[in-house]
Design a protein that fits this description.
With 233 residues, the chain is mainly alpha-helical. 72% of the residues lie in helices and 3% in strands. GO terms for molecular function: DNA binding; DNA-binding transcription factor activity.
Amino acid sequence: MLQQPQRKRLYEDIVNQIISLINEGKLKPGDRLPSERELASELKISRNSVREAFRTLELRGNVEIRPGDGVFVKKIDFDKILTPFSEIISGDAKLVLDLLEARDVIEVEIARLAALYGTKEEIKEIKEILEEAEKEIPKGSDGIEYDNEFHMAIARATHNSVYIIIINLIKDSLIKSKKMTESVEGQPIRTIADHWEIYDAIAEGNAEKAGKMMRNHLNKTKKNIIKIIGRQD
């Protein structure tokens, strides 16, 4: 999974590779990293370099070192990091709309890249999220949890760590807008229908269609929110 480091400060190269794997979703929270001995042998470097890399990752909050047990990927608490940002967005209708406009730029490209680079496993994950949503929404679920999972799964399928981070950063700030639209009668079902159209395009590997379907979905969301905000004024 990791490649032999090339830089003079070998531990920095290891740190960057592991962070990239975490951001791309190839290493997930709770995953155990190879031991110092295993990684040193695999990469043909000293155990000191591996040890320094693990310490650096621990200081950055990326991993947890459990003595006698190993080194494990740590879950990043985005809620704690972004609470002020989320509160600002959720309390300002104009900022909610601004964020939706930003999504129109970001997520359309994300859908395109997912169609180009998504693996069979990643596309299967997107499908399974939609299938689960279809089961739970008729039982009374508002669908917001599945909405977040759907957009995150598409971001992971881009294999672009920056897009993955961006969607992680903004997803909780969008909860208010999602709650506003999902309160409209029948909207959760219509949202799933939109999501299936996006999924179908991604599964077909049709980048242009995937981007178009995502843009259509986001435009519908924005129109609904504008109507709701207008009624609240």
